[in-house]
Each structure stands twice: as C-alpha cells, then as structure tokens.
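Write out the 3D structure for:
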Amino acid sequence: MSQRMLLMLTEKLDKAQRRMARPEVVRESLRLARDQARLRLAVGDVVFQRLSGESSAEHAHTAGDGHDHGVELQGGKLAMSTSSTTGMLEEGNDSPVVAINQPLLEAYNAMWDAGRALEQGDPHAAIPPMKRALEAIERSRAASRLYLRGKPPQGDRGHSQSAPCR
C-alpha cells in the first residue's frame, strides 16, 4: 500500500468517524497504523540499504558500538549520523546520495508520527504527518532522477524517442 493510499483512507476515516462508534474508529485506525508501520519499515530499509548495504532500519545501535550506518535511531525516528559519512559522497550534504536519503529520512520520521497518532485512534492528527511523508517521498523520487552524464532527456521535439537523432 502506498503513502498516498494510506492518506486517502485516513482522510476518509477522519470524515466518517463522526458517524462511527469509537471502538470502530479505533479498530480502523489501528489497521491503518499497521499498514503505515509496514510502509515506514520499507522506507527505512531503503535508506539503510543505500547507506550501508544492510536491509534493516530498526535494529538498535548505541554510540561507540563499533559500527555506524550513517543514520541513528533516536526516539523511534531516524537521523543522519554526525559521526559518519558512510554511504555519502565526498561532496558533502549536496551529494546525490544525501539528496535522495534526506527526504526519505523525513518521510520515515513523518510516518512515525502518523503511526503514533493512528495507534491512539486519532486519524485527524495523523493527516498532517502523512502529507509531509508523501511530500518527502515525492522529493526523494525527484532527486533520484539525476543525470550524471550528458543532458537530461528534453521530451518529444519532433523526434522519435526510439530513433537516434542525426
């Protein structure tokens, strides 16, 4: 399930909750919270895979434990590690890897906030962080479309996409 679909379902639940019994709202909200948690874990796995080659975002680390993945789990949220450049290019914070992963970290953290609100049976409070997560995913998607060599495609200017220009 996508973040956009979760947002739409949460907005629908938010509108319908006035006509629903509280236990039913909580039950539906918890179902959405589980879906949000699965999606959050998938986003966290993408971040960790890109930064460290490992596939799990939610395993515990402590300062000085001997391995740093470039991100740290702080209060349930992920943050870029200040002590490591694992997975980063030497250019610094404007590198393509950071440009992709920073929005994914923002999405992960917004998903965390949305999931907590849903777990408490409050779909209305989950909507703003869900929107932030969706916006961050869109920024990450745009950042991943980097053209490192040559010019990016200019679209159709009377040339067929499959035939080379002469």
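The chain has one domain: 3-53+73-143.
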